[in-house]
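user: Here is a favour to ask of a fellow structure person. I have my own habits and do not want them to colour yours. Could you put it straight underneath, so I can go through it closely?

assistant:
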Amino acid sequence: MQLIDTHVHINFDVFEPDLEDIKNRWQQAEVVHLVHSCVEPKEFPTIQGLADRFGNLSFAVGLHPLDADKWTTTTGTEILNYAKSDQRVVAIGEMGLDFYKASNQQQQQKVLQAQLEIAHQLQKPVIIHCREAAQNLKDVLELFWQKKGQVKGVMHCWSGTPEETQWFLDLGFYISFSGVVTFKNAKTIQDSAKIVPDDRLLIETDCPFLAPVPKRGKRNEPANVRHVAEFLAKLRNVPLETLAQQTTANACQLFNLSLNI
């Protein structure tokens, strides 16, 4: 069996003391590849170093919506140049909209638009973060699709309703579920997970955040993506091996991965 964790942040300091042990655990859990997300471009050299250290790690470059105020006149060029500089860059992101506590909604939309332009230019998928902003995000994407053309990508750590899920499926997106789907009170997310077609489903940890049951409350790590897979397999009434095979194939398709096992 092979699993791919499609969203990690193992560059965070919380992992530094025992990263080799963490790697051993994800290997034992049959996690064969990681896709490392990027909060802001200054992380790029560190993430690149992790890819040098761990052969089965691809990564993205982008600016998170909660850091949208850090966007400058040179940020777009920086992201573009980083993305072109290393063939292991498989996506632009994470980008998106987060209106949960934000007062800079227009700035977030401007930064999202700019990064969509980069992804479209490079023909790379996008990793989308969306919180309390599904309608606004849908509007931005639909307008971009009409004016520029479609960009493929994934709604990461998805927590939307089934109706919202269908919006983004209709736009061609993959939907990725994190440990949140395993939480007892996550009925809406579980309902959404039931309607995603087999060929659009992805799994992730978003580590170090949001550890799944039975690890909830602890530091999350890539090995725990297996718990997400096990839960989704039961929820969707398929064997774990089937779900693993499908989500791994989907990740390879979206991010153009060739597994080096």
Q: What stands out?
A: Residues 179 and 259 are 24 Å apart (CA to CA). The mean pLDDT is 97. The chain is about 40% helix and 15% strand.
